[in-house]
Amino acid sequence: MRRAGITEAEIIQLTLENVRSFYHRNPEVTAAPMADNFMWIGSNDFQWCEGLENFRRTMEKEYEEPPVLISDEEYHLLFHDRNVWVVCGRYRITSVMEDGTALHAHVRGTYVWRMINGELKLAHVHGSHAQDIPLNRIVTMPEPLTADMDYFDYLKRMDSITSDVNKIAFRDTNKNYRYLFPSDILYLKAAAQWSIVHTKTETFQVWGLLADYEKSLPYSFRRIHKSYLVNSLYIDSIHRYKAVLRDGQELPIGKERYMDLKHYLQHAV
Fold first, then answer.
1. 202, 181, 198, 180: which is closest to 189 by C-alpha?
2. Taking CA atoms, which of 16, 38, 153, 168 is between 20 and 30 Å from 147?
3. What sequence ranges are listed for the domain HTH LytTR-type (predicted)?
């Protein structure tokens, strides 16, 4: 049974706050919930830390590095009993190097929370980089958008100057908590009482109607059809009641919405 007063949503929130504070280089916030005997295991051989003070010493140089952008966050409460909560998560990180290039990596983590002397503490974190998706170095993109620049990466770059509060929160039907930048989302499709979120890399089903998400998504998301809510920044062209996305997908446009969409795209900055 879950301990009264601590909800699944609260545990997920505490976890993502800890992850974000780590990559935002805020050591005091990161260490605040950690137990004195906190255990951390990272991807590298030296990243084996027993005890909070050992963790602090090991991470001194890490915290001198620039902040890292986190995207495509997903968290799930894997297990809990009266005094223990185990959360698993995965996300992507982007770090800009001194030479102006950037590194992308996929990270997975396990986070163990324990009730110790009546206080909730982070007892263990185990993080690793996906080895079958190696670090990917990209060249810093020019600004503004040019014809030889990948549009998806340009949008991601634009989002990198925003904070985590601009991410869109989803709860999928597998009970995972997901946090995406608007530019991660291509479109949402209605599916009865659910919605299906389509991103550049995956598709997943979430609770809620399109009308609910339409209220929380940026103005660039347009309802082009009763069953489709589309990120207009990904629309390449429209013709004969179809919207062609930049990746080649074709989506229907409602006849009553066609002229409004056409006018919007013609005047969008």
1. 198
2. 168
3. 168-267
